[in-house]
Amino acid sequence: MSILGLRRALDAPVTTLPKIKAPDVNRLHKLGIETIRDLLLTLPFGWETYGEPIPIASLIVGVQSTVVGTVMSIAPKITKYKRMKLTEATIRDDSGARLRVAWFNQPFVAKQLHKGDRVAVAGLVKDGYGMLEMQNPHHERLDQNEESEPSRVGGLMPKYHLVDGLSSKKIAGWIESTLPLASQLEDLLPERVRERHHLVPVAEAVRLGHRPDTFDEWREARRRMAFAELFELQAAFALMRASIAAEPATPIPYRQEVIDAFKNGLAFELTRAQRRSTWEAFQDMEKAMPMNRLLNGDVGSGKTAVAAACVAMAHAAGLQSVVMAPTEILARQHLRSFRAYLEESFPGLTVELLVSTQSAAERRRVRAAAASGHCALVVGTHALIEEDVEFTDLGLAVVDEQHRFGTRQRELLRAKGRGRPHFLAMTATPIPRTLALALYGEMSVSVIDEQPPGRTPVETEVVEPEQRGRAYDLVREQVRSGRQAFVICPLIEESELVVARSATAEFERLKKDVFPDLRMGLVHGRLKEKDEVMRAFVAGEVQVLVATAVVEVGVDVPNATVMMIEGADRFGLAQLHQFRGRVGRGAGQSHCLLLTDDPSEPALNRLSLLTRIRDGFKLAEEDMQIRGMGELMGPRQHGMTDVAMQALRQPELLSEVRQEAESLLESDPGYDQNPLLKAAVARRLELTSIS
Ligand code: ADP
Ligand code: MG
Question: How many Å lie between the centroid of ligand 2 and the Cα of residue 353?
Fold first, then answer.
């Protein structure tokens, strides 16, 4: 095949793999593997080791081991009881000892191995009624030659990320047949960067990553892949920063009397973290380069007040502001807060709401007020961008729960300024610093790592399956005393339809069997009337709200005192912590109940962290250590592979990558002479949820 042909072979869809069937194609797609190139670039995340072959006589029950011997008999069978297909074989080693081997649901093994073959098998040793046995071991046929050693079995067996129906062995097989194409993989890392950081070329990394001789080789391969991926991302960020900096913004000068008036109008003292974040934002806004800042603070840490201070400062400079929230309920809540924080202290500062459920006349009135400059702040939902709202002079754009919006939506909001408005994004997901740099590298980050004083901590408990009744009792008792409760349904990794169905089923069950006497409501992503249900909950008409994890429950309902989370072991600690933040907002004692499906010790230990730690950032760090960075955000949100995520555990690596990416933009030959990197960066800018 010509080189061009090989390149094309790399871009060929996985359907062209030898002997692949449609279900496996779908499974690969689920893993994000569409082409042969994707397949090759997906390295194993770990290895199983079985050690060097040992004699059958020295096998120990319960230990992973490797045996080399001769197949004495092999035949497909059907099991008596469950009618399962099975391949059964007996293997004899050179000393004459025998081992029974059974492969369940793998009838094809009987076609691959034959009587008299020399094989290596590796797996867990079991006691098979008087004779030692291995079930579903890895196997490899060896040359007849006595000296031949197994190349994989006994050495290293790759572990790939899987979905149901796939096995690492299957993937290893496909890799085997496509690995020769690796030599055609193009390298987007400039050679001098590779040299400086001792990174192997991509073709080599792929070969070593899939077929290393030692762990170190595999680690080298992973390091290289992680570096390249982070490099791509950071190059994208560097470009974005450069393009943002190139568009001027109107400077908003700092004025002491404005912040004094703002503080005087508040019913509370700002916390130290709020003051620091406000100060950081003010410093950005004074520049002619647009602010691009992420305000990261736990639920309830008081992000709104920081945003309000910025709005006040913009207003004093004669500029308008806009605040976009993901749901109408949140937008209405913001309307109340911003008015409370601002309208009294700043008489000319009017705040208006724009959401799609308002009457046409009302929306027209708000649009006119924004366009004429009479209104200083418009708070709203997507309607802000859909309805073509115009401003006289927009100086500041704020987005709440920024991960709920796509890149395009945020861009549309920013485009409403004459130049570029200063931009403040808020998120309640506590992100450790390294991860913030990796994910939102184009933004500066302010952290509010302190809660306002006087909050009663939420009492958090892990509830094991057999104590479920106790959890229901608590819900009932709280509702009887006039409080409200949330019930969060487990996270199911399926379609929204499946999630909706299971939430509906759980809702029906609770209503019928558990709380027939209580007023219950259900919200899930597919429900048309979800705003109506939320409103009823906020108004206290609904006492127990059953919700799916995907639905926004980010509302302030101080009367809610119970947060009950089903299948808590399936969530990341950071996410559980966010749910917990929905209660404990009023004066009463609140409770968070973590129900587990999996009462295993590691699961319980992990959940018990929540009972001890109240700081979202600490929890995020802990979770990162236990489950890895990827889990923190949920796989869909970050668009990074686990290789890159793991590499983030070493903060030095990220800063090296950032430096290289920065300097590439200034050097020659640089970014513009690297079409591969350019294409990769363009793809990333589209894919990732970076702003
Ligand atoms: P979040 O960061 O989750 O958006 P909010 O801005 O909604 O938090 O604030 C949560 C609650 O805390 C609000 O009722 C707000 O008025 C109150 N709050 C904010 N800052 C302080 C403070 N420094 N002291 C006391 N209460 C505060
Ligand atoms: Mg908020």
Answer: 16
Q: How far is CA 110 from CA 18, 39, 73, 134, in A?
A: 20, 28, 10, 16
What confidence score (pLDDT) does residue 149 get?
62
Give distance in angstroms: CA of 223 to centre of ligand 2: 38
Q: How far apart are CA 79 and CA 87, in angstroms?
A: 10
Residue 624 near residue 435 (C-beta atoms within 8 A): yes
Q: How far is the CA of 427 from the centre of ligand 2 (A)?
A: 8
| Helix and strand counts by DSSP (H, E) for the chain | 27, 21
Q: What is the pLDDT of residue 667?
A: 74
The number of beta carbons lying within 10 Å of the beta carbon of residue 141 is 16
Residue 235 pLDDT > 90, yes or no?
no
Dist. CA 567–CA 454, nearest whole Å = 31
- At 107, which amino acid appears? P
Residue ranges lining ligand 1, Cβ < 6 Å? 268-271, 274, 297, 299-305, 428, 452
Atom of ligand 1 nearest to the CA of 270: 23
How much is the pLDDT for 3?
55
The chain-wide mean pLDDT, for the chain, equals: 86
**pLDDT band at 154, cuts 50/70/90?**
low
Q: Which residues of 317-333 are buried (b: 16+ CB within 10 A; e: fewer)?
A: bebbbbbbbbbbbbbbb
Mean pLDDT value of segment 626-655: 65
Atom number in ligand 1 closest to CA 301: 2
Percentage above 70 pLDDT, the chain: 92
